[in-house]
Design a protein that fits this description.
heterodimer; A: mainly alpha; MetI-like fold; two-stranded antiparallel sheet; 14 helices; 1% strand; B: 294 residues; globular
Chain lengths: 300, 294
Amino acid sequence: MEKSKNSGRAGYYLYILPGMLGFALIVLIPLIANFVISFTAWKGIGTPRYIGFQNYERLLVDAAFWGSIQHTLLFIISMTIVPIILGLVLAAVLFDYISAQFGETLSSFFRAGFYLPQILPLTAAGVLWGWILNPIGIVNAVLKAIGLDFMAQNWLGDASYALWAVSAVIVWIQVGYCLVVFMSGLARVDPSLYEAAELDNASWFGRFRYITIPMLMPEIFVVALTTLIAALKVFAPIYVLTSGGPDNATTVPSYLSYYHFFTTNRVGYAAAIATLQTAVTIMLGIFFLRMQSKQTEGGR
Amino acid sequence: MAATASLSTPIASDAPADHRQKKGFTRWIVLAILFVFLGGTLFPFFLAAFNAIKTPADYAANGPLAFPRSFDLTALKNFWANVDFTRKLFNSILISVCTAILAVVLSLLNAYAIGIGRVRGGRALLVILLISIMAPQEALVYPLYYMAKQVGLFDSMVSVILIIGVLHTAFGTYLLSSVLTTFPREIIEAAQIDNASRWQILWLVIVPVLRPTLAVLATFFFIWTWNEFLIPLVFLVSNNNQTVSVAMGVLSGANTQDPTAVAAASLLGVTPTVIFFLIFQRTLTRGVAAGAVK
């Protein structure tokens, strides 16, 4: 009996085989290959030449690379921090106020509306915003129409505004995701908590501060982790809106490595950028998951 | 109004409706502010729609903000014909459907072994699979590009389907494993007593029960694949193989001199997803959360 059970379990390995084979071929081997390539000088053809840490040494003095890291930090703000704050406030207003005052249909309507930008292809969103932000585009037309001509800018073409313009677009895309996750989190909060607070005459802000935020901690964690990983990987919006320009003012590691892989053909160098990016992302992921498991152990 | 208010607090529906007083004026202000925000969020869509149907003359005379005074589908038709949009739509649908099916099947098989079969190392596997979610695609793309060239799968939709399918499998495995771990053992044991093979148990017992979850998962995979950019950009170089997402990316900045043409392009680029969104709105807005927090 015991023996047949054991062999029964072994039979399940057959089911995991295709998935593992795929993972090995498409994730693991390429990842390792990329790591190895990062120690070589290679143009994509011929034999890669081993050069040790030279690619990494060059990265340390590459202004474009350091710039890309700074931009990533800004995109963490526009992709993670700002959308989480806006999402929390919107979710709380919709859940705790609008659906109580005006009914659930209306709050679902708002939720759907704010979520819409999130599911667009980033490239289509990019074309749309590229058109809105270009020098003869909508933003400048609006400014002109309300008599603020002097504020009109070449939003994506001017190094001092491009980064902020892209950040704004990213916020537009990301708020919906945070909102949706937070609203479904609120659905599992016991309504009597809010009612008790209301009976105690707690202000809306008091309820937000002392009920909504603490109760949503698990969701905030998950959203922070997923959006942080996404922020470290930003590629399509940059590719479409600015191509990293002007003068690398908006470039990010993903774009920089793509550029070196396929435009300058400095494959080893690009691989080094991608390797560093992977290392940072995975370390951050591990750190977050550790924190999360600690928090859930202590919290519940 | 009282009835709808109590709907939102279904657990204690009698008393609280009275306590939640309607604050006459502020609620309208809050509502107005929200509508302004929502208007701002959706404004780009309206802009694209308005300007895509204007004649260039109307656009030139009245600017982008004016309500259209002309109705002209030339810009849309031109864009459609120029980029062979029918073909792009077909490619996107084909790739997204195949990827969704592949990813769901792989996820299901993985999750069956981990959640039901409780194979040794199952949990460790789940952690390792997280690499597919975390690793930036740039770190995989060049070796994959090289491999595809070696085996003759470069510029082939098959390579894109395989790659994206496997990448999405991580999320699916994660989600389905946690669902299957809580699958009632009695049902499976009953099937085993009836001499059902493992394969039969999977397809005749588990899949029918999981069908709604699998459908949600497939919807997600479909839309994610539809929006995927880097992999199709690198692998699908010829015009005939490109997806809507890549066509949009390649187009950016290409014809900014004609604003109504760009508006038409944006409109056509976002329309398919907006249609999916209208169809799957409930699945999407609820499902995101289901997947995110377990």
